[in-house]
């Protein structure tokens, strides 16, 4: 039975915005190990489900889809957001 993981997309570390971080992603877990292509050196496998990522507005919608399709899944909780409140004057302490 195929398995999947459901997680909330993290904020891009190279950008300051939080666009598309409210979406939940269902990603299939690989069933076979990746192998290096002898010609190019790129890693790949014959499992095409590894390329599929589905987005959902809520975690409940992603769970409902997985249950309807008969997938085993696990939900990775979103990391807690930590704010570092700092004033400009703190640079000179």
TrEMBL record:
- InterPro entries xrefs: NADH_UbQ_FeS_4_mit-like, NDUFS4-like_sf
- What are the entry keywords? Electron transport, Membrane, Respiratory chain, Transit peptide, Transport
Q: What is the annotated signal peptide range for this record?
A: none
Tell me the compartments it is located in: Membrane
Q: Which Pfam family name is an example for this entry?
A: NDUS4
Q: Where is this region: Disordered?
A: 1-21
The processes (GO biological process) annotated in the record are: electron transport chain
Q: Which PANTHER family match?
A: NADH DEHYDROGENASE [UBIQUINONE] IRON-SULFUR PROTEIN 4, MITOCHONDRIAL (PTHR12219:SF8), NADH-UBIQUINONE OXIDOREDUCTASE (PTHR12219)
Q: What is this protein called?
A: ETC complex I subunit
């Amino acid at each position: 039975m195929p398995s999947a993981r459901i997680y909330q997309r993290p904020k891009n570390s190279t950008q300051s915005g939080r666009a598309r971080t409210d979406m939940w992603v269902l990603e299939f877990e690989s069933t076979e190990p990746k192998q290096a292509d002898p010609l190019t050196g790129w890693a790949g496998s014959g499992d095409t489900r590894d390329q599929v990522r589905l987005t959902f507005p809520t975690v409940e919608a992603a769970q409902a889809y997985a249950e309807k399709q008969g997938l085993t899944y696990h939900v990775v909780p979103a990391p807690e957001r930590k704010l570092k409140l700092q004033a400009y004057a703190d640079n000179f302490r």
